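tool_call predict_complex ligand=manganese (II) ion
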Amino acid sequence: MTQNLYGSTSVSVLLNNYLQQHEQNHALPSNLTDVLNSISQACLHINEAVRAGALNNILGSAHTGNIQGEEQKKLDVLANQILIDTLSTQSAVAGLASEEEESFISTNQKGQYLVLFDPLDGSSNIDVNISIGTIFSILPKPAGELKTESFLQTGRHQVASGYVLYGPQTILVLTVKHGVAMFTLNQHNQFELTEENPSIPVQTTEFAINMSNQRHWQAPMQKYIAELLAGKIGIRGKDYNMRWVASMVAEVHRILIRGGIFTYPQDQRDPSKPGKLRLMYEANPMSLLIEQAQGKATNTQQNILDIQPNGLHQRVAVVLGSKEEVDYLTAKHQNC
Ligand code: AHG
Ligand code: MN
Ligand code: MN
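tool_result ok
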């Protein structure tokens, strides 16, 4: 029993209690619990750095580039190092792959799991104090020597995934493939269960897309967004609202809470780049959460979780959220 800041009392379920319950009820391996606890510990450190901001001299550029050719912020580099340092000491982790690292990192030979992460999602929002996050995906380690191919498993093979959102509240959201659980960081710096099994409404009137890329979109996306913008007088027969935070964690969190559709499409600029988002560090972990909350995620051709990866840093088009809206947009791409 705990008393919160406003005097109300309730029985609190902490992250570790939740995971232990799942060990019992769903035969969740205890070493997977250890890995998840380790990730949450690393994210507590990242959270401290985020909260201190300029006081900790963590804002601004690191003046380095990552494997994707993107400029790294100081916080991208710090969050990446915190996750590597924390997870390397975890005996159940055999290897790591990060958006910020060129190649995978081999950790403990006898480990059973691989952890893949986007250490800091929404980097363009760091310096302006808008929600950012950490995204993670856990895969089983295949037998044999660890190599890049060990990581190239479809999203369906994930045993768990989640994110930590550093927003007005710090929120950890995860799935161990028995629904989705949301934990809010309490005043004792513990993750406390605050919502279980959110269910994404199948219909929506809210969409998220970076409209500044409109001129580059392919024809089906042009037609779809035009239909939404036409509102009540168009063929969809209802008015739509738009949001764009530019942090995928914040967009996915909004969709888990109240539904919506989020898309970062492939466009006509560079045919070798199928979209901006990364399959292994962003699309797969988020798609597992979305499916576990009765939503849907596709690349406009197939379910994201069924895509056979061909590289650690592979990019992918993403459409995710409310099931009927995702089906509508996906079908629009297939019928032309
Ligand atoms: P990251 O900061 O890890 O590179 O990811 C940013 C991603 C994603 O979070 C967001 O949806 C998208 O990039 C924003 O892109 P734009 O700046 O093109 O809007
Ligand atoms: Mn990202
Ligand atoms: Mn990132």
